[in-house]
Amino acid sequence: MQSYSIILVITMVYEHTNSKGKKYFLHGKGRLFYFASTQKENAIDLPKGYQIVENSRTGLPMLKKE
């Protein structure tokens, strides 16, 4: 009989709700960061030294260095 181990990895994912009420998730690939309306495998937490700003016309979130 074989025994199996289950490893659960919990990662924090940054979620932003804009002024229009739509949710966005922060994703990253290396040094490229982007927001998407769906959460995918490469969703990440907010990197240190960055803040979220929102485009006043479209409501899209963007990262800005502090």
Instruction: Outline the low-pLDDT stretches.
Output: none
The ordered string of helix (H) and strand (E) elements is EEEEE
What value does the average pLDDT take? 91
The number of distinct structural domains comes to 1
Number of helices: 0
Number of strands: 5
Spatial order of strands in the largest sheet: 1-2-3
Biggest sheet descriptor: 3 strands, antiparallel
Helical residues, percent? under 10%
Q: Tell me the quaternary state.
A: single chain
Our Rg estimate from Cα atoms comes to 16 Å
Shape: elongated
Strand content: 35-45%
Structural write-up:
The protein has one domain. The protein is 0% helix and 38% strand. The chain has strands at residues 15-17, 23-29, 32-36, 50-54, 61-65. A hairpin with a 6-residue loop joins β4 (50-54) and β5. The model has no long low-confidence stretch (mean pLDDT 91).
